[in-house]
Amino acid sequence: MSDSEDEVQDWLALTRVQDAAVLKRGEKDFAPDGTNIQQSILDRSRNAMYDALNHPRATSAKNLVYGEWDSERQQVRVDKPKGTHFFTMGKAERTATFLDPEEAVYLAQRGTLQVMYRGNALSIEGICAFCMSACRQENMLVYSYLKKLGYIVRRAPALEQCVPEPIQHLRQSQGFWFWLTQPWHEQLAWRSVYRSYSQVYRDLSIVSTARQTHVEPIAAHYHVYKPGTQFKKSKPLPPDFYVRVVDARRQNIPTLTETRGLFASVPETNEAPKRSPITRIKQGKKQVVLAVVDAGIVSFVRLVETEFERLN
């Protein structure tokens, strides 16, 4: 017991708190007061915002890159890529570099790329309309958000989806080979008291009647690298984060079975030999980041798979 617990509590401090006056709060600047002056100021501010948004965006002709929308591949073809962005973006082939829809939208919004279609220059709205047919709006929002923070973001390759087999709680008495090796003169069930027909049928059944539900495999959408990483498109290093995009308005958080399938598509992290047990529990052997998009607001949730039995 500490010395502070033996001391007598000073209850007079509560009276001083009660005597203190509550701080007064003034009128909020944004609180509507119903006057024409406030409405006029609000209208002028709104019109100034609209004028700024409608102003044509100027860009340097030296840094502008032209691309053509390829309807068959659902990508943007760039014949003459230039600039540092293409060091970490796009997929280079023999004759051109192809940009994914989210990459094209990001470069177009920052004024680096001008997308053409059949000889006509597309506006930002037109580019988004073409790209949204091949990429969800939530994915483009998460991609642009991470790129603005300085991360290197690449689409996850088409990995072979591995879904773990469903867990079946089968007793040894339900195995087929067990029945062949047992003498036939013994009783079929060993329970002394049955309180329902389901218990009788469960003991007599040889093949499990559990319904197998099909679960669509899920995997990470993007491989994310920290800023400053020495990245090469020809030989990329293992990513720092595996990001899965979730639409909060249309999708739910992955279930346990889906989470197991998500972890099955992610390799194990390189465990440091001198990490403490608490650190190993927090970081785990596999990590997946869920980018939850709710009405344009992006929130990140980290899922960690940890084996407690391996911790000493």
TrEMBL record:
This protein's GO CC annotations: tRNA-intron endonuclease complex
Protein family: Belongs to the SEN54 family.
Protease found in the keyword field: no
GO MF annotations in UniProt: endonuclease activity
Keywords recorded for this protein, A-Z: Endonuclease, Hydrolase, Nuclease, tRNA processing
Protein name: Putative tRNA-splicing endonuclease subunit sen54
Membrane-crossing segments per the record: none
Manganese is among the record's keywords: no
Domain of life: Eukaryota
Biological source species: Wickerhamiella sorbophila
